[in-house]
Amino acid sequence: MNAHSNLTHLAQRIDLAAAFRWTVKLNLHEAVANHFSLAVSDDGTRFLMNPNGRHFARIKASDLLEIDANDPATMTRPDAPDPTAWGLHGSIHRALPHARCVMHVHSIHATVLASLADSRLPAIDQNTAMFHNRHVVDDHYGGMAFADEAARCVALLDDPKITTMIMGNHGVLIIGQTVAETFNRLTYFERAAETYIRALQTGRPLRVLPEAVAEKTAQEWEAYPGFAEAHLKELKALLDAEGSDYAA
After folding, report:
1. Distance CA 42, CA 139 (A)
2. Which residues of 168-197 are buried (b: 16+ CB within 10 A; e: fewer)?
3. Which of 80, 163, 220, 246 could cysteine-pair with 17, CB 3.0–4.6 Å?
4. What's the pLDDT tens digit per position in 135-191?
5. Which parts of 69-161 fold into alpha helices (H)?
6. What does the alpha-carbon distance between residue 149 and residue 133 come to, in Å, rounded to a whole number?
7. Pick the CATH number of 2-242 from 3.10.290.10, 3.40.225.10, 3.90.920.10, 3.40.50.150
């Protein structure tokens, strides 16, 4: 890590690199696709993101690109990001200062949910309740996430209360204030989607929580002290114990 002490935003880079590595362990990744980004400027327009074509299992803190969402020359850089990542993440960081961290994956259960005619996630347990009144469904998939797709996604995420966008026929996008908060939310969403899908597979009626209980539980998740931070801290400790080079 000392060799990279001149890197800017080192702590943020290390957190984001750890999230990439653990995403692989949970099998939420897909080939060399999907992207995570993290704003590092006060206005949110400068952000870190994974380099084009790099597998999540190989990403290190020093590999992360620092990108200016307002720089029209971004795609002419020698290390230009993936064009769909620039389209989606650049648009979000340019327009939504509250979206400090953005994680987009095509994980299995989230994508199954996104493929249903009704992709909403009902509050049927404590984990699904985390997303009650805090997710939105994009029902108008029109192809890969270039400019038009990105503009629609930005509009759907305008409300700061929305933490999760179920991207119909595509996957899921999670936003948060920190890597810890966003990655914790991502892992819980995948688990919540799996619970819901398995419940549907029984063919039996669902026990859906009443509105008041679901909203109360969602608020309790938001106020739970230090949970996401403890989660990421433990994941980094496990990576360190393995001798992982994610922080390099």
Report:
1. 32
2. bebbbbbbbebbbbbbbbbbbbbbbbbbbe
3. 246
4. 999 999 988 767 778 899 999 999 999 999 999 999 999 999 999 999 999 999 999
5. 83-85, 91-95, 108-114, 126-129, 147-156
6. 23
7. 3.40.225.10
